[in-house]
Design a protein that fits this description.
about 210 residues; about 25% strand; two-stranded antiparallel sheet; Rossmann fold; globular; 9 strands
Length: about 210
């Protein structure tokens, strides 16, 4: 890549904790990237405040203001193009948009469960943790994956696991999973930036000694 720093476009619909975590890693020098644009799908959310406070161009693009999902998607992509984004990071983004071919393999997401379990439409946030507890799972975690135009179906980049205790509340499990999300997402961005991810079909091969059998 011609530039030293990966240019990120962050899409969000809520509190912005994932954006905040990415910015913290960049400022600490542990992630060679820069947030080039933030796009929010809802007004009045903390994620907008975080983006503006960090000096990042921050836009509100509301799906209901567009007649079709295609028109909405075009508006999103125009902003990403204008910001010359290398990688799009979904950070609690709850609106459906159509990813154009030129962005294939350049959009990633973090899901608060171990995909392919507990994924799909409607499975986000506390809905996921409630479902995990209701099923009596003993392990949960988070998954970073490439995004396709089908919910949670893109190839898995990496996962981190946490124990699930019988006494857990959804809030307690969510907090434990989010601790791992704060590690996993910057790590996946780093691997992408360093060209260490190779996709074959539905499998992502990670060219890093850390992820190889010793």
């Amino acid at each position: 890549m011609a530039r030293n720093k990966l240019r990120l476009g962050v899409l969000l619909s809520g509190g912005g904790r994932t954006l905040e975590n990415i910015i913290e890693h960049i400022r600490a020098g542990t992630l060679a990237a820069e947030v080039a644009v933030v796009i929010a799908s809802r007004p009045g959310i903390r994620g907008i405040e975080i983006g503006k406070a960090a000096g990042v161009p921050t836009h509100l693009v509301r799906p209901k203001e567009y007649p079709t999902v295609e028109a909405y998607s075009d508006a999103m992509v125009r902003l990403l193009d204008e910001a010359r984004v290398d990688l799009v990071c979904l950070a609690g983004f709850l609106s459906y948009w159509i990813i154009p071919e030129r962005y294939a393999g350049r959009v990633i997401n973090i899901h608060p469960a171990l995909l392919p379990a507990f994924g799909g439409k409607g499975m986000y946030g506390h809905h996921v943790h409630e479902a995990v507890l209701a099923r009596g799972c003993k392990v949960s975690g988070c998954t970073v994956h490439f995004v396709s135009n089908e919910y949670d179906e893109g190839p898995i980049i990496l996962q981190r696991a946490v124990p699930v205790y019988a006494e857990d509340t959804p809030d307690e499990l969510a907090a434990r999973v989010f601790q791992e999300e704060c590690i996993a997402y910057p790590e996946a961005i780093r691997l992408f930036a360093e060209g260490r991810l190779r996709v074959e079909g539905r499998v992502v091969h990670v060219d890093d000694p850390k992820y190889k059998k010793q």
